[in-house]
């Protein structure tokens, strides 16, 4: 009986793979062919330095872009980056410029038609960026089984993914494999579509809804659970955008189900990392965020201003690639009568639907966690 269930499961997985390959390799020829607005732009304005690098990418690559967010983590120079479900390579070529000639970007995708476009323009972009040799490569394979494509353990500083995890029939394996190939201190920074509840099987079986990144979407609570089960620290929510679908036929099928596009940061911290709140000061040396660094929906760090951070963020900043971008101070946070009193930032939910509500009511802004003068109650 177990063998029968396994065979049935393998058949279902293969069916999903084939359907997605067909949809993204044959059905969709360009972004405008999408039947919903699930692949919506980022809620945040695209920074000028990112617009500049995107403008350098070949139009044929951009035309087949189907992402739902902006996956440009900070502090990229000289990093080794992996793009899960790279498609035609737009994000790879964007990051190729930001990691620099000493960095490297690998894209993996299962759809040969997409990879054919990505590989076609390697030499074009190498010359365009003024590099002596390519700093990108593209691998055909499955994001649930990176080892089968030769991607080794602890080999990447950063993993990105843009509206791809929802297309996978095995999200837990995607997260496990991402965790395996990340170095200690590494980050999975990704945008995807999330639902407000579990999706029933009949909707999951709809090829168009799955291909449009809707019926394969994770319930956001499942992401939080799976991430921590795999070993990541608690996910940090960066931003969220509403998805309205804007297709009456699909809306009728989906009923009351609601969706958002959200960006999360997941960090793989070394085992036994100390978790202790502290004061941090950003040095302002990261490209594109020299004046202030918006880490997530809760914390924004202004250059040369001390900010109080909680246990989790203190551990992330001190054990990741960001450690050299900050100074850390653990003394004096609660010294009575010292005149030092630090505002603890408002807690921000990891629920993207709640964040959307807060943003809509203008009641939330990333905290700067700065000194609040002599109000000793802030230190309680």
What does this structure look like?
The chain is 32% helix and 20% strand. The strands form three sheets. Strands 1, 2, 3, 4, 5, 6, 7 and 8 form an eight-stranded mixed beta sheet that branches. Residues 1-9, 335-339 and 371-380 have low confidence and may be disordered. The protein is α/β, with parallel strands linked by helices and 380 residues long. It contains 13 helices and 13 strands. The protein has helices spanning 2-27, 48-54, 59-63, 90-99, 112-120, 122-128, 171-181, 201-204, 207-211, 220-230, 248-254, 311-319, 352-360; strands spanning 80-84, 104-109, 136-140, 156-162, 182-195, 218-219, 236-243, 259-267, 278-282, 292-294, 300-302, 306-309, 326-329. Strand 1 (80-84), helix 4 and strand 2 (104-109) form a beta-alpha-beta unit.
Which structural class is indicated by helix and strand composition?
alpha/beta
Proportion of strand residues = 15-25%
Mean pLDDT: 85
Unreliable stretches (pLDDT < 50, length at least 5) are: 1-9, 335-339, 371-380
Helix content: 25-40%
N-to-C SSE series?
Answer: HHHEHEHHEEHEHHEHEHEEEEEHEH
**Main beta sheet strand tally, sense and closure:** 8 strands, mixed
User: How many helix segments?
Assistant: 13
How many beta-strand elements? 13
Radius of gyration, taken over Cα atoms and rounded to an integer in Å: 21 Å
The rounded distance between the terminal residues' Cα atoms is 58 Å
């Amino acid at each position: 009986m177990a063998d029968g269930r396994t065979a049935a499961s393998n058949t279902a997985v293969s069916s999903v793979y084939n359907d997605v390959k067909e949809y993204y390799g044959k059905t969709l020829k360009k972004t405008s062919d999408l039947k919903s607005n699930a692949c919506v732009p980022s809620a945040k304005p695209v920074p000028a330095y990112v617009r500049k690098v995107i403008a350098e990418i070949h139009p044929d690559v951009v035309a087949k872009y189907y992402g739902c967010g902006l996956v440009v983590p900070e502090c990229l120079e000289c990093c080794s980056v992996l793009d899960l479900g790279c498609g035609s390579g737009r994000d790879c070529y964007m990051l190729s410029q930001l990691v620099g000639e000493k960095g490297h970007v690998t894209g993996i995708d299962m759809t040969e038609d997409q990879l054919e476009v990505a590989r076609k323009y390697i030499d074009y972009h190498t010359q365009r960026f003024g590099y002596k040799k390519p700093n990108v490569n593209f691998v055909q394979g499955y994001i649930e089984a990176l080892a089968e494509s030769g991607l080794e353990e602890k080999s990447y500083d950063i993993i990105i993914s843009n509206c791809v995890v929802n297309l996978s029939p095995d999200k837990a394996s995607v997260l496990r494999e991402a965790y395996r190939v990340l170095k200690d201190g590494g980050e999975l920074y990704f945008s995807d579509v999330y639902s407000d509840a579990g999706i029933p099987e009949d909707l999951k079986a709809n090829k168009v809804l799955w291909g449009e990144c809707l019926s394969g979407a994770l319930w956001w609570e499942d992401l939080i659970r799976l991430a921590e089960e795999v070993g990541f620290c608690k996910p940090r929510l960066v931003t969220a955008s509403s998805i309205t679908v804007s297709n009456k036929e699909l809306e009728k099928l989906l009923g009351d189900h609601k969706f958002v596009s959200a960006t999360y940061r997941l960090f793989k911290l070394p085992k036994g990392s100390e978790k202790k709140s502290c004061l941090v000061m950003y040095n302002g040396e990261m490209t594109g965020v020299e004046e202030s660094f918006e880490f997530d929906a809760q914390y924004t760090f202004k250059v040369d201003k001390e900010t109080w951070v909680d246990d989790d963020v203190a551990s992330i900043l001190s054990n990741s690639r960001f450690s050299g971008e900050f100074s850390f101070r653990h003394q004096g946070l609660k010294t009575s009568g010292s005149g030092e009193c630090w505002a603890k930032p408002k807690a921000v939910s990891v629920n993207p639907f709640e964040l959307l509500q807060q943003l809509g009511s203008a009641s939330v802004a990333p905290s700067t966690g700065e000194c609040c003068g002599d109000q000793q109650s802030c230190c309680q």
